[in-house]
Structures are given as C-alpha cells and as structure tokens.
C-alpha cells in the first residue's frame, strides 16, 4: 500500500509538471507572471485596459509597446515608482493626459513591481526578459531622493539596451 501511494504521488507530480517542462516553462516564472497578472488587474487595467490596449490619445498601450519590450526594465521601474507626466510617444503615437499621466505606485513592494512588470513584459504581444526584485530594489535605492514624476525626455536619457 505504501509503495502504491508513493507511485501515485510521483505519477501525479510528473503529470502536473511535465507540460510546463515540455514547453520550457519555469514554474517559478509562471507563478511570478500569475502574481503580476493579479496586480495588473487591480492597479493597472483601468487605464491600460485588460488586454493592454490603453485608450487612444489618453492612456498608452502596453500591448506590443516599444517602451515595454526593451532589454532592460529600468525606465518602466522608474515610471512605476515615481509616475510620469507630460506627453509620451508610444509606438509612434502621442499620448497627452492631464498630469500626471501615470501616478506613482511606490507603495508597491519590490516583489510586486517585479511581478507586474514580468507579466506585462511577457503578455500582450510583448517578449522581454523577466524583472527581478534586485533590479527594482537597486533603482528604488538610486532614485530614493526623487519626488517628482518622470518626463519622457528624462526617461529617454536612460539606456535600456
């Protein structure tokens, strides 16, 4: 009976995790994306919409976004921590919203920011590397004295390649 239970548990584990391994999916990364999706649906979707399309002329899309798909997430982390004000051009289209364009979300933890950015950077037609809590913590520390939202011009001076 004991051997049967062990065999059942082993078989069940293989069946549960084999599809993830066969597809090359990392269970920890999938958990991070799922957590990020929950944060997105709570904090971000009202402006950026459930499918990341944004609202034309007002709220920029995250779907297939030139800002989201960069190699490094440094600009995005700064936007979440301090917000962004003024006009911004995304995928060649201007967006002008009453200030601030995006309010700061600095109350989110480093883990929450890493999770939501990993979700956004792997969803809506985007394909970019995951974001780590270490990346978020480093930028939070570097920019801790900042008290104003970013502008597009300031963010464009930050290398993300």
Automatic annotation (TrEMBL):
Lineage: superkingdom: Bacteria
Gene Ontology MF annotations: electron transfer activity; heme binding; metal ion binding
UniProtKB keywords: Heme, Iron, Metal-binding
Gene3D superfamilies: Cytochrome c-like domain (1.10.760.10)
Matches recorded under InterPro entries: Cyt_c-like_dom, Cyt_c-like_dom_sf, Cytochrome_c-type_DH
Keyword field contains Lyase: no
Cited PROSITE patterns: CYTC
Span of domain Cytochrome c: 31-124
Name of a matching Pfam family: Cytochrom_C
Protein name: Mono/diheme cytochrome c family protein
